[in-house]
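Cont'd.
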Amino acid sequence: MSDLLVAAPALVPLGTALVTALARRRPRLVGALSLAGACASLLAATWLFVRVLVEGAQRTSFGGWPAPFGIAFVVDPLGGSLALIAALMGVVTLVFQRSSADRAPESPTLHPLIHALLAGVGGAFVTGDLFNLYVWFEVMLLAALGLLALGGGRRHLEATLKYFALNAVGTLLLLVGLAGIYGLTGQLNFAALRDAAPTVDPGLLLLVATPACLAFLLKAGAFPLFAWLPASYPTLPAPLLALFAALLTKVGVYALLRLLGDLFVAVPAVTFELLGWLAVATMLTGVLGAAYHWDMRRILAFHIVSQIGYMLLGVALHSEAGTVGTVFYLVHHIVVKANLFLVAAMVFQLCGSYDLRRAGGLWLARPALGLLFLVPALSLVGIPPLSGFWAKLLILRAALAQGQIAWAAAALIVGVLTLYSMLKIWLQAFWAPHPEPDWSAPAPAGRGAAWLATGGLALVTVAIGVAPEPVYRFAAAAARSLGVSP
Amino acid sequence: MSWLLALSVGALLAAGVFLLLSRQLLRLVLGVSLVGSGVNLLLFAAGRIGPTAPPVVELGEQVLTGAANPVPQALVLTAIVIGFALVCFSLILALAVQQAGGDADVDSLRDAEPPPGADGKPALEVER
């Protein structure tokens, strides 16, 4: 039973995908099964997370093969917490899908693909084997391609192609890195790799780890290979967009943190110096790309890139404090980013456009929505007392403590530019009058589910902001369980 | 044997990357599958080329000696299956894009990212 629980973040969504695919002739049943499956997944992930907190890391090996030979699943605090948040995002997505705001068109493959994507993400967080990680990446890729192509229009197909071209190369790069790592150490199991890494030459270790790192950076949307992200994400309907934005790039960051911050801590220091500058370039190019755009989805898509820079900066610091910052940032960012896209969909529903030049007047018409938008927006910027403030503070403090003044300065400048983008959205969509003088806000029905999803996420953001202590202590424990020396 | 594998991997990767850089849609898709084949060979070579005996433990024996390394074979098999699925999907995708757009030049695919308007600002998208 406990063996199955360890694999639950992957198994429950896989089972739900199967069931929803089998029930495809009865759409109402599919919707109910889908939501029930997501809730079951959330319950299982919560149970698993509590067990990890109480009893320490949970592990299992499949097929009765002992650890280095069979495929192991290992859930440590880091993987457990991310699996929990991924399951939460699944529920939020499906709740929002029940509202009327820019929902994904129902099709027989929609729910199976959503759950396959969640299975890929969950599997990547709980696996303890490098090759198995590659397999989950491919599951994610195929499900993501399917969801992108569901729209069926020309722009959807183009977006799918752009996503496919770079991400397929990314997974092949990962396979190259895997071949090198296996050829050098003869191991694929995380624990065995952790033991084997100090015994081989650090230069060789870097050589074989580089293709895998590049693959993870590409998947995370880091500079200079982020072009696929803003090219493809804005064609998605809002719930799927929120799901993609929340989870997919973060799996890349997680995998990079696992590789460089846990398994291969012995790689030469120049790696982390390089990664730090890459992180700065990612932050800057992302936020500047966002400054150019007027479409809310494009602005927010570029902000994913920019925020990934902060998380990479935490990995590049290569210290316990930096890792704590990255873990905190991951948790905060998943919640906030998904919420921003969902609130943008509610704005779209009222104004009829995602383009800010066609929106306005919402502060008078819908003040509650204005306040709701401000919570994740200001949290993304890093205004206290919201969760983003603590996440940025942790990264900045670690950077300054390690004497990386230039990196810290870049992080602060990007914070100011992020404020510019968020104010642009708020001033245009809410404060400025609507471009059409006789516009009045429509009162569409069926927004309860949208309010439930976005309000719930906003509450999480505020809760982390007001009481960061438990999350901080947890992030510190998660960082200690990784292999970075203090 | 190793040098033959190394040359094949190099040739496949070079041809694959060349095709990947092409602006023709179908070449790009073929490029991905060629790179995939090269990487599969690389993965196979990572397990060292040596004995060719099948990795089956004889009755009564406890350890396997003088047999081929089974791990890379298992890995390559998995990678081939996944790669096959990806290639199938991408071929259909390339066909669908061509049917929707009628143009095989990837540079002309600007529907997902419309070029800026005359004033240099991002184009106002047609709502659909």
